[in-house]
Amino acid sequence: MLARARVVFRGRVQGVYFRANCQQKAQELSLRGFVRNLRDGMVEAVFEGEKAAVAECIEWNSTRQPYAQVDRADVTWEPPTGEFVDFEVRH
């Protein structure tokens, strides 16, 4: 089943390769979407793909990012749109 989640990661998530590691994991899981820094120090990501893979990617980014310290991940599930062709880091 396809799913889409918009996630805001809070904590020490900028300046620690969070976006690059997030992109690598999302690509390993064949997800589409994007990740980007927000001006308030948080990171936003949109993951779209198989629901189990989306959930796995959220969990991995929340707990196993090598240099980040995620204090909280706010997840909003949305209907998948199919608008993405790959997973990119947005600047």
Summarize the structure.
The chain has 91 residues and is of the alpha+beta class. Helix content is 26%, strand content 43%. Strands 4-1-3-2-5 form a five-stranded mixed sheet, covered by helices on one side.
Task: Walk me through the structure.
The chain is of the alpha+beta class and 91 residues long. The chain has a domain at 16-71: Alpha-Beta Plaits, CATH 3.30.70. Helices cover 26% and strands 43% of the residues. The protein contains two helices and five strands, in the order βαββαββ. The chain has helices at 18-28, 51-63; strands at 2-12, 32-37, 43-50, 69-78, 87-90. The protein has a five-stranded mixed sheet, covered by helices on one side. A hairpin with a 5-residue loop joins strand 2 (32-37) and strand 3. Helix 1 (18-28) runs antiparallel to helix 2 (51-63). The longest helix has 13 residues, at 51-63. The protein is globular. It starts with a strand and ends with a strand. The mean pLDDT is 98.
